[in-house]
Amino acid sequence: MTENQFDIAFDWDGTLTSGDGPIGQDNGAEIDLYPLRLCLEAGCTVAVMTCNEAPYVASVLASRGITAFADTAMAHKVPDGEFGGQVLVTNRKVLAAVYADDRNITWKFGDDPRYPLACTMQDKEVIR
Ligand SMILES: [Mg+2]
């Protein structure tokens, strides 16, 4: 594992929450933290990436018994020291081994260059 690489980074908006975009405090979106809890119980380092306000998301996690640290300084590092073991909540994309995101295709450097276009066209077909 690379230093400051999380084991897993969850998207918040539309992934741990229902709906397909950023949610605010009062829009009634459902929140499912079970997949995140499973990772924590297995000892994984976990980040939550969001377009929402990071302190708000951290407070939601805290209200549900998950200790979280809002990375308002944009350090995007695995929490250690006094913050060790906490879920990092950030507005940045952090380095992680695994990303759980509702708007994701898996493609990386060296993969079939036609794949992103193929996925895009497939989505366009579904939308039509
Ligand atoms: Mg999302």
Topology:
Blueprint: E1 6-11, H1 12-16, H2 34-41, E2 46-49, H3 54-63, E3 68-70, E4 87-90, E5 96-100, H4 115-127
Parallel strand pairs: 1-2, 1-5, 2-4, 3-4
The chain binds magnesium ion.
Task: Explain how this protein is built.
With 128 residues, the protein is an alpha/beta fold. The chain has a single domain (6-127), classed as Rossmann fold, CATH 3.40.50. Helices cover 28% and strands 17% of the residues. It contains four helices and five strands, in the order E-H-H-E-H-E-E-E-H. It has helices at 12-16, 34-41, 54-63, 115-127, and strands spanning 6-11, 46-49, 68-70, 87-90, 96-100. Strands 3-4-2-1-5 form a five-stranded parallel sheet. It is globular and about 45 Å long. Magnesium ion (MG) binds next to helix 1.
Q: What spatial form do the alpha-carbon principal axes imply?
A: globular
User: Strand pairing plus helix content: what structural class?
Assistant: alpha/beta
CATH architect. name: 3-Layer(aba) Sandwich
How many domains? The number is 1
Quote the beta fraction. Answer: 15-25%
Number of strands: 5
Topology order in helix (H) and strand (E) letters: EHHEHEEEH
Tally of separate helices:
4
> Can you identify the CATH class?
Alpha Beta
- Enumerate the strands of the largest sheet in spatial order, edge to edge or round the barrel: 3-4-2-1-5
Low-confidence stretches: none
* Main sheet: strands, sense, barrel: 5 strands, parallel
Please give the share of residues in helix: 25-40%
Quick check: average pLDDT?
Answer: 88
- CATH topology, by name, is Rossmann fold
Radius of gyration, rounded?
16 Å
End-to-end gap: 42 Å
**Bound compounds, please?**
magnesium ion
Oligomeric category:
single chain
